[in-house]
Specification:
This protein is α/β, with parallel strands linked by helices. Helix content is 32%, strand content 23%. The protein has a five-stranded mixed β-sheet, sandwiched between helices. A five-stranded mixed β-sheet has the order 7-6-8-5-9, with helices on both faces. The relative contact order is 0.15. GO terms for molecular function: hydroxymethylbilane synthase activity.
Length: 307
């Protein structure tokens, strides 16, 4: 039994806090602890403060993790709770992803007062999205649609939609479910036609490598299948040097000791796409992802992601 509260580091958005609370609840249930045995520490990140331009122009994914990781390394927090899709593929020395919670629904949600589906939007409709992947896939499916940069937390984006600033937006269904906002969804986009971001729907927990007491606490809530899927997807992303600067989709699934993976890369304007599927034993999760990344990188060739 720990002698002092376990300090959980998180961003301050409603979704980030919901994920931290879910982690706390699972730890309380696994160890018979009370809320008083935990302290949730809110840390403001650079990504939360930069709202006037795309993250791809401001420095990419690390903007949502840098300050939290510094707090881990300084010993100000004991664990950090993140959305896996926000995590860079390379972590600072001394830190590791040491647990994953069971993965939520990975699909993207279409939200609009004007149409039931993305395909049904009127000609020249305006869709708000801050994700280069979503922007590129929207443009590929509907070149006539105008896609505008759309930053802010979930509630901010929904408010902009309500005010009529855009005709539709796309958000991760997992996040909406965690916020109790599943009822705002107009329709869900099938992964066959709209591949999610690497790590979408998965909560990961980062801690100091080799911190035995913390690792022992996390072990009972760790979900091995999610770890296998994310190991493959993150290896794929690492081979592509993926960040917020590149439109990339990837999804691994596990069934009966076998892992299946589908990945794709797109030009930012949606004009060109390369995709592939791979399958193998779960033990080869990382190798499958890496090989898929190398193959797509070769298919795209030099300068594929240049705008």
């Amino acid at each position: 039994m720990q002698s002092k509260p376990l300090r959980i580091g998180t961003r301050g958005s409603a979704l980030a806090l919901a994920q931290a609370h879910e982690t706390r609840s699972r730890l309380m249930a696994a160890h018979g602890l009370a809320e008083a045995d935990f302290e949730i520490v809110v840390i403001k990140t650079s990504g939360d403060q930069i709202l006037d331009r795309p993250l791809s122009e401001a420095g990419g994914k690390g903007l949502f993790t840098k300050e939290i990781e510094e707090a881990l390394l300084d010993g100000r927090i004991d664990i950090a709770v993140h959305s896996s899709k926000d995590m860079p593929t390379h972590l600072p020395d001394g830190l590791a992803l040491t647990a994953f919670l069971p993965r939520e629904d990975v699909r993207d949600a279409f939200i609009s007062p004007r149409a039931k589906r993305l395909e049904d939007l009127p000609q020249g409709a305006v869709v708000g999205s801050s994700s280069l992947r979503r922007q590129a896939m929207i443009k590929r499916l509907r070149p006539d649609i105008e896609v505008v940069m759309y930053r802010g937390n979930v509630q901010t984006r929904l408010k902009k939609l309500e005010e009529g600033q855009v005709d539709a937006t796309l958000l991760a269904y997992a996040g909406l479910r965690r916020l109790g906002l599943a009822d705002v969804v107009t329709s869900l986009l099938d992964t066959d036609t709209f591949l999610p971001a690497v790590g979408q729907g998965a909560i990961c927990i980062e801690s100091r490598a080799g911190d035995a007491p913390v690792l022992a606490m996390l072990a009972p809530i760790h979900h091995h299948e999610t770890e296998l899927r994310l190991t493959c997807e993150r290896a794929f992303l690492a081979e592509l040097d993926g960040s917020c600067r590149t439109p990339i989709g990837g999804l691994a699934t596990v069934e009966g000791g076998r892992l299946s993976f589908r990945g794709l890369i797109l030009k930012p304007d949606g004009s060109e796409l390369h995709e592939l599927t791979r399958e193998g034993p779960v033990e080869a999760a990382e190798a499958i992802g890496r090989e898929a990344g190398r193959h797509l990188k070769a298919l795209g060739g030099p300068g594929f992601f240049a705008v």
